[in-house]
Structure formats: structure tokens, C-alpha cells
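Posting for a labmate who doesn't have an account.
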Amino acid sequence: MSNYFRSPLLNQRNEWWRYLLTLGLVISGIIGFGRIPYMISAAMKGISVEELDKLSPDEFTSLFSNNENLSFQLFVFVVGFLMLLLAFRFNHRVPLLTFFTTRKRIDVKRFFVAFGLWALIEGILTGIELMVNGSVIKWNYNPETFFLLLAICVFLVPIQTGFEELFCRGFVLKWTGKATSRGISIALINGLIFGGLHSMNPEVTALGWFAMLFYILSGFFAAFLTIMDDGIELAWGYHTANNFFGLLILSSQWQSLQTDSLLLDTSKPSVGWGLIAILAIAYPLMIFLLAKIYRWSDWKKRLLGD
């Protein structure tokens, strides 16, 4: 078993109802506070809460700019992140570090190593995409909106990905770790849960079953990194770089978060070679590189259990 599961949670305040309480607190916090920026901005435009609730999703988002919509959507994750920290501290009553890593402190260097490696891989794939499908990728740079987008990404995206990693690879991973010591089983369950949480995204409607497969395998990949490295830093860094690219560098007209990125893919939704390359080449390559850098050991024990 990974050392990530050998924590105070295995011996104290680890009852199943505490996990349910934490889940309830996070959901309640997001529902209760997540819409506050939308409501304030709508009120400034003379639109009441009742009128806001009657709008269709397209009408709703059309009220605000892409940067406003993005910041409002990311604010939800800020609320979730804070609610998780409060629940960990006052419900589970363990040091917050317990859900992040087994190390004495969060290893920021690990975060940036994973961030840099994935950014490099994404950069190479984007370069190839420009050469192969350059006709459908348009230069979309607008200085009036781009630098605000850059600031939003720098300050809010790490919190958004931090919430998802802390929730899925911290909270949920430890919860499922109560049931089995097989890391491979835990990673598979985690991938399925991660896929389920993204099942309502527009990408699933646009790409169908492949989008779900992509989300499930991405969740499995992040869980695998966490189990092998005894912490969420690598998964957090990879996830942040991935979202940076999707929001800041190359976005599409059918993705869940619309932005004024540098490049815009105007092609119709399709399963391109890039998505397949990520699953078949980029993920295994990342595991190979990180395993070499951090000298992962005890693979059999971590993945198959004691």
C-alpha cells in the first residue's frame, strides 16, 4: 500500500459518516456561496435573482464577458477549496497536510516539475496541431482581454485544480483507501468517479463516449501519480498546466469554459489525433519520466497491496 494511506486518518476520526459530512459541507457551501458573484454582477446590471433563474444557459452566459464568466465559474472552486480545508480541520481534525502529502510540507518543486513537463508536452502537441490543422486554428489574441485572462488563470486556476485534486486525489482517494489496499483498484475507482463528475460537461455531448473515456483515464492517471508519489503535488502540477493550456493558449468553441485564448480551434467537435496521443503516448511518457526523476519503488506493493 502507498504511504499516502498510512496517516492519522487510519486510526482516528476516520468513520464513514465523517466523509459523508465533509461531502455534504462542500456541496452545501458551493450551492450557498458559489453563485454570489453572478448575483452581484447581475444586480449591477439591474437583473433580479428571479429574472436570473428564468434565463436559459446561453442567455445567462451572454450577460457577461468571457473573462467574467470564467472568473465566476472558478469562484465556485475557491468556495469548494475553502470548505474542504474547513472540513478537514474541524470534522476530521487532522493536520491539513494529511490530505496533500506524506512529506513534512507541500513540495512546491514537485508541483512545478510536473507543471513544466506537461506544459512542454502540450506545447509540442500544439505545435504539431498547428502544422497539421493550421487552417482551422485562428490567431485570437486580444490585448484588451488576454492579460486579464492571464491574471485570472495565474490566481484562480491553481485553486480550481487544487480543489479537484484535493477532493478527488485527497479526500476520495483516502475514502476508497479504507476499502482496499490495492492501489490499482483505488486508481480505477478514482478514475470512474472523476469521469462521473465531468459527465455533464459540453465535451461529453460533443465527443460522446470518447470524452468520458478521456476523463476516466485522466482521473486514473492523476490517481496513479498520487499513489506512486505519496502526495498530490505531481497530479496538481500536471492538472494546472493542462488547464492553463486549455484556457490560455488553445481553446475551442465547444469546450466547457469559453475564453479569449491566444489560439482558437474553430473546427467541428471530433476525436482528433491529439487526444489519442495524450492517452497513448503522453500519459505513459509522464509516468516514465516522473518514475525516473523520483525513483519510484515498490511498484507491486503499492499497486497490488500488501
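Reply:
Got it, the C-alpha cells are right above this. The chain has a mean pLDDT of 89.
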